[in-house]
Amino acid sequence: MSADEELGYVYLPVSTPTNDYYGGHRPGDGLYGDSLVCLDAATGKKVWHYQLVHHGLWDYDTPAAPNLIDITVGGKAIKAVAQVTKQAFVYVFDRVTGEPVWPIKEQPVPASNVPGERASKTQPVPTKPAPIDIQGLRDEDLIDLTPELRKEAIDIVAEYDRGPLFTPPSQRGTIQVPGVGGGGNWAGAAIDPETGMFYVGAYRVPFVVTLRKPGAGESSYDFIGEFRYLSGPRGLPLLKPPFGSIVAIDMNTGDHRWRIPVGRGELLPVFQRLGVRERLGFLARSWALVTKTVLIVVQSGYFGAPRLPPGGTRRINDLNNFDPHLWVYDKASGEMLAEVALPANATGAPITYMAGGKQFIVFPVGGGPLVEEMIAVAL
After folding, report:
1. Of 52, 111, 240, 278, which is least packed with CB atoms within 10 Å of its CB?
2. pLDDT in tens, 259-294
3. What is the pLDDT of residues 173-225, one digit of tens each?
4. Rounded CA separation 96/300 (Å)
5. What does the longest C-alpha to C-alpha distance in the chain come to?
């Protein structure tokens, strides 16, 4: 949740209704499901709400706390709230009234072919900002570092159903882009209150969601969903790079300013053998922190992200802690200013504070097979 102390309002990102992938038992849009809800903190009464996904079938719950940011749009000062989503949209509202800052249009979306399912005929699509990453799956979105890889990727996706964003899950299996992990995800976004810039991490993680009849005693639903990460050719990512990135959006205009790859996926042996040298980004979540002068980014390893096949080139435990760094960028241009080696990848957002006249950056690492610690660096 996020709160505006002056207004006395609290902003709640609300999840998908159960069951995530089949909604034949819950006809209609699902009031407050997949919504941003504003409450009066003193009374608990609803002030406004906006549904971001109708009749959710994709596990596109709102995954992170919304950002409160004061912006100026067309000469008008607006107290705004911006919600990052797994479907790679950023929805922006006047946080007092709930009115969209830029129009949000109901767009037609594909129907479901699953018996008993009645998917919504339309979904709300923001006119601004543009999506932070790929939505839906087209041939031109597939990995294309070599013609052979692209051909192999096309053969892989031919085994499943696919289409534009909000293509419903199917019994054959539907490729979902962004996948159930996003687009945007738990890492949320960072804002610069002085410039109105918005920095959000994205990663390209396609999933296949398949519906099936439950077994005896397994469930009372007509269908239940199973999802899995869809690897590309030779254990590589299915989608083209950058696999992980940070996108900068000017919230005064709604325009993207730049995208930079985060992480060095090109260091994986399989890319080395292909002779890839440019920065590809790494297929994991990134957390951003804005200070008065710079943008600081840390990234998770494979722990906390899908465990992708290592392709026989590296043990998967090695990838739990892959090339850990803290990166410092010029927050206006995205130019890298510093690269600081770390003992482990991040598993949460960095914070900053002052102590003894020094400024510190602190973030958590570890979990699962890794030692859980806090890492601190001083500026």
Report:
1. 278
2. 999 999 888 888 888 888 899 999 999 999 999 999
3. 999 999 999 999 999 999 999 999 999 999 999 999 999 999 999 999 999 99
4. 35
5. 65
3-state class of 266 per DSSP?
A: helix
Residue 122 CB contacts under 8 Å (≥ 6 apart), including other chains: 54, 106, 107, 108, 109
Answer whether residue 303 shows pLDDT above 60.
no
Can you tell me the distance from the alpha carbon of 36 to that of 324, in angstroms, rounded to the nearest whole number?
34
Residue 58: exposure state from Cβ atoms within 10 A (0-12, 13-18, ≥19): buried
pLDDT in tens, 102-153: 999 999 999 999 999 999 999 999 999 999 999 999 999 999 999 999 999 9
The conformational region for residue 183 under phi > 0 = left, psi -120 to 50 = alpha, else beta, is left
Are 344 and 375 in contact by the 8 Å Cβ rule? The answer is: yes
Residue 125 identity: V
